[in-house]
Specification:
The chain has helices spanning 13-26, 36-45, 62-71, and strands at 4-9, 28-33, 50-54, 78-81. The protein is α/β, with parallel strands linked by helices and 84 residues long. The radius of gyration is 12 Å and the shape is globular. The mean pLDDT is 84.
Length: 84
């Protein structure tokens, strides 16, 4: 059985830490990005089973990322988060 892969899109250190802890507990292999360029490269090069997208990431427009995923026919679930 292959390891599940999760992509976290956030630049917030606390959000990264929480997602990291949850991923380790649930057995996900975690990749984290905090910019649009890195996001585009990650999505085009790898297959992910789940994406966690922080809508408050400074260098990433959340709606643009959702449109990019839809345009790429990305079929994995996407969880939207917003840190306060």
């Amino acid at each position: 059985m292959r390891e599940m892969r999760l992509l976290a899109v956030t630049d917030d250190k606390t959000t990264q830490a929480v997602i990291g802890r949850l991923c380790r507990k649930r057995g996900f292999q975690l990749s984290q990005v905090g910019s649009t360029d890195t996001f585009q490269k990650s999505v085009s090069k790898s297959t992910f089973d789940l994406v966690v997208l922080d809508l408050d990431t400074k260098n990433v427009d959340g709606m643009h990322m959702l449109n990019a995923l839809a345009g790429a026919r990305f079929s994995a679930p996407v969880v939207l988060v917003r840190h306060c």
